[in-house]
Structure formats: structure tokens, C-alpha cells
Amino acid sequence: MNVRWAAEPTPTDRGALFGLGVFRCVTATWAVVVALIDSRSGVLVHPSVALGILGPVLAWSVLTVVLARRSPGVMLTAQAQLLDFLLGALVVVGEWVTYDGAHPLRFGAMWQLAPVLGAGLRFGTLGGLVAGVGLGFVNAAALGLAEGLEGELLAALSAIVLLGVAGAATGAIMDRLRHAEDDLAEAKARERIARTLHDGVLQTLAAIQRRSDDEELVALARRQDRDLRRWIRGEAGTAPAAGGRTLVEALHDLADRVQARDAVAVEIVAVTDPRPATEVREALLGAVSEAVTNANKHASASRVTVFVDSPDGAVHCSVCDDGTGFDTAGTVSGLGIDGSIRAPVESVGGTVEIGSRPGEGTEVCIRVPLDPGNGP
Amino acid sequence: MNRRLRVVVADDHEIWRSGLRADLGDDFVVVAEAPDAPEAIRAVRREVPDLVLCDLNMPGGGGLAVVRAVAEVAPVVILTVSEAERDLLDTVAAGAVGYLLKSTRSADLEAALRLAAEGEPVFSPQLAALLIGEFRRLASHEPTGATGEDPRGAATTPLSPREREVLGLVARGRTYKQVGAELFISPKTVENHVRNTMAKLHLSRRNELIRWAVDHGID
């Protein structure tokens, strides 16, 4: 097993270690009191041995509290864990050695839990289970040596199970807590960075977009702007490649490319960001791209607005320009409308309507179903 | 226009205020600048400008506080780095004449501000899209009479079919003139429809608040 010799304790670790240290002190003190009472009543036949064990146990207990406060990392080392476990085993064995025959109370019954809980805290579910079961077996062995296992088998087994469960449960709880702690820390860090970005970089990117005459620089700033915002919203995990972007983001990319290439302003206006199936999305993006290119190349438009909405389970997308327009009754071949707009849209079950009059711009209305086959 | 427009600029970033001052050109004169909402409110009440340009996120309550306090005194245009911000629609509902993205190019910015100073809403296609989405949201939360045919039961004020049509066309980038030509109405009527949608948003938001308060036992 690959053991970290000095793990970096989290705030949760610190709290748990301190609590466990206090638990050790209280139970060790309790053990001393029980041992004193029992030696007076005579059931504890070797008081010097018992106190010889409990002395170091009490000292270690106090030390764990101090360490939990001063340098909790030490408590997480394998050496500290081993010492803790050996003391636990010593207490378990000591009980069977120092008492004579039946006794109602045992001094170490509580303290021996501490090393098991500590192992769960440090090594997680499996570590806690192993420590608990191990100590349970030490207990069974000592019991067997002292009184014989006959008639005590059930007690020995239940001790193994209970200690194992205690250790495993502690480990599981600590793992959960650490995960929650990590998530919280990440959320906090993201919020802090988001605030910094909002006050700094995003303002600068906006200033570049507003004041620069360099179209390429403006497009770059716009793209960075959107990527950062996406990261702030917590969607940074998705790849920046075309496949990972939403429909509206892909349209923005398209607009950036066209604006960088031609002197035409392309505005994306979206009521919602629908999520059509991949082939529908590709067909739609291709058709929009062609319509925007047409607006620029053939209609010499200066401004194109791409509107997206999905009011009824289908995607509505219209590409409107302020260009020269044309007579829809006349010939429209050569504009690529049939091949590059109508064909891909109709292949996924969509429809295309084109409205235009000379001098009044053009509107290409595209409707596609979210899933191909479900015609709009 | 011969008279120079008097403007109050409120933004907590000094670089933005100076940048705007430099970019606004000869038609505008910046009479006061403010780094936060309370200072902006004081400046507007003192100067009574033709126009207030106000950042959405500012200390002291942000653009929303400014709009609530001085929307009656002077038209307020919200400047924002992102149209995706949740409070944007609140400022419009509270009486801002509209919003502009901080990335809006200087020429477009000036043109929009000149119209705003004349009391026209700065009604971008994006704002129209926001309104369409918002009224759809309000309608879907309506327990009964989502179509608005039962005015007694409806807490929100739904858009009329004509208003929806107008919003849809504005969102597609049409000017008021083009919308009017398409619907066979005058541009002035289009403008009225736009104003009405903003008034209805205002009313719906208030009703929503009242209903929320009633639902939660607050009188």
C-alpha cells in the first residue's frame, strides 16, 4: 500500500483529529478511574500493570490533542497511526491480563475505539475496516489465551464486527466530507476568479470590441469574452471544439468568422438555446452559413441578424439582411439556395421559406425539428 | 441636433468613464461621473441631465438602484458587459429605457444614445428576444388562462398577438419603419406597441411579486 507519510490535513481533518483527541483523553481518564475502582474492589488483580499501560495511553491521548492543534500533519503519518494501533492492542490485551475472572466493566472498552476511528479517518473505508477487524482479532486472541474461547465465541465475533463497522463507517463519512469540502473549495475559488474576471478582463475585452478598428482583434476579443463567460458559468469542461458548443455558441463562432472575413456585421439574437440532434444541427449551421454568405456576396448587405427560437419543439431560425433583396418570383439559381440551403434542411425534415423584394432585404426562414424524422 | 446632450456616467471602473467621455464625441457633454449607485443618484438629482449612462454591476445596489431612484428624473440607459445577466430585465422592468452592451461600437452607441435622450426606448433585437423569453416564462407559470382570455384570473398581463408579432420582428433586426411597413401600421404605432410590452413587463413583474408575497403569507 502506498502510504503518504505526511498528508496535508484539510480543515475537516483538523476538526476530526481534534475531536478524536478529546475522545481519547476522556476515555483514557475514564479508564484510569475504572482501573482504580476495580483494583480497590479486588477484581483487578494487577493494578500496577494496568496503570503501567494506562499511563502512556493517557500521555499519548493528551499529545494527540496538542498535535491536532499544533501540527495535525504528524497525526496523519503512518508512524502515528501504528503507535495508536499498538496502544489500542496493548489496552485490549491488558484488560484480559490484569483482570481476574468475570468483571462487569472493563477499563479499555471505550478507548480502543479511538485507533479504529483514527484509521478510518486517515485511510478511508478500507483502512478503518482493516484496523477494526484487526483489533477485534487481537481481542479474540487475548480472550482465548486468558479464558478460552469456549462460550465466548459470540462475544469475540461481535467485537470484531462492531469494531470493523465503526472503522469502515468513519472512513466512509470522512471520504464524503472530504469530497464535499473539495467541491466547496472549488466553487469558492471559481466565484472569486469570476469576480476578478468580471471586474478586469471582461471589461478590457469589451473595451477592445468597442474601440478597436481591427476586425480580427475584435473577433478574437469577442470569442475570448464568450469562452471566459462560459467558464464562469461552469461549462468549461466541454471541449471548445465545434462538437462541444451549443447551437447558439456555434452560431456566434460562425458570425465571428464571417465578420473577420467580410465587412458585414452579423448579430445573433436568441430567445433560447435549443439542442437539436447532431445531423439537424449540422444541416442548420450549413444552411445559415450559406444564407449569411449570400447576404454579403449577392445582396451586399451591411448587417445580418440571425434569430433563433424554439417555441414549439422545433427550431426556428431566420437570417435577415438589409441588402438589395431580389424578386422571389424570378430566377434564384446561382444563389445556392436550392443546393446549399433547401436540400440539407429538407433532408432532416425541415422547411425553408424565403421572403424578399428588391430593395427591401431578404429573410430566410428555416424550421427544423429537434430530431430528424419529426417534421415540424 | 444643435444642443449638446448633458450626460451623467456611472461606472465603478475609472477607465470606462474616461473611455466613454473620450468616445462620446461633440454631441455629448459629461456633466458628472459617479463610481457607485448612491453617488450616481445624487449626481442625477443635482444635474437633471438629458441622459444617464449606468453600469449594471456597481457598488451600492448597482444599476437597478439607480433606475429605481431616478427613472422619473432622466432616461437611464444600462451599460452591461453581458446580455445574459439576470438583473438586466429587472432594470428594464424598473424603468430603464433600455440597455447597451459595453462592446457596442462607438458609432452605434452614439446613435442609440441620441434616440434615448429623446425618450425613445433603446430597443435592441436582443432586448426583444429577452422579452419574448420572459413573457413565455410568465405564461408558463400561469396556473389558468395562460392565453390571457380570462383577465380576472391572470396575474400576469400577457402580450397581445400584435405585440408578439412586433417583438418577433424587432428581434429579427427590423427597424420600426420596416415593422410598420410589414404590418401595415405606422412606425409610431410600432413604437407604442414596444412601449406597451415594456409597461406590461413592469406590471407583470409587480403582480408576480404581489402573488409571491401572498403565496408566502406576507402582507
Continuous helix count of chain A: 11
* Unreliable stretches covering 5 or more consecutive residues of chain A: 1-6, 237-243
Strand content of chain B: 5-15%
Estimated helix fraction of chain A:
55-70%
Count of helix runs of chain B: 9
Number of discrete domains of chain B = 2
Q: Strands of the biggest beta sheet of chain B: in what spatial order?
A: 2-1-3-4-5
Main β sheet profile of chain B: 5 strands, parallel
**Average residue-wise pLDDT of chain B:** 82
Total count of strands of chain B: 5
Keywords:
heterodimer, A: about 375 residues, alpha+beta, Heat Shock Protein 90, five-stranded mixed beta sheet, 5 strands, disordered N terminus, B: about 220 residues, alpha/beta, Rossmann fold, Arc Repressor Mutant, subunit A, 2 domains, five-stranded parallel beta sheet, 9 helices, about 50% helix
Describe the structure in brief.
Chain A has 376 residues and is of the alpha+beta class.
List the helices and strands and how they pair.
The complex is a heterodimer of chains A (376) and B (219).
Chain A: H1 11-41, H2 47-70, H3 72-75, H4 78-98, H5 113-147, H6 153-199, H7 201-211, H8 215-232, H9 247-261, E1 265-270, H10 278-297, E2 303-309, E3 314-321, H11 337-347, E4 351-356, E5 362-369
Parallel strand pairs in A: 1-2
Antiparallel strand pairs in A: 2-3, 3-5, 4-5
Helix pairs in contact in A: 1-2, 1-5, 2-4, 4-5, 5-6, 7-8, 8-9, 9-10, 10-11
Chain B: E1 5-10, H1 14-23, E2 28-34, H2 37-47, E3 51-55, H3 62-70, E4 76-80, H4 87-93, E5 98-101, H5 106-117, H6 125-140, H7 161-171, H8 176-183, H9 187-215
Parallel strand pairs in B: 1-2, 1-3, 3-4, 4-5
Helix pairs in contact in B: 2-3, 3-4, 6-7, 6-9, 7-9, 8-9
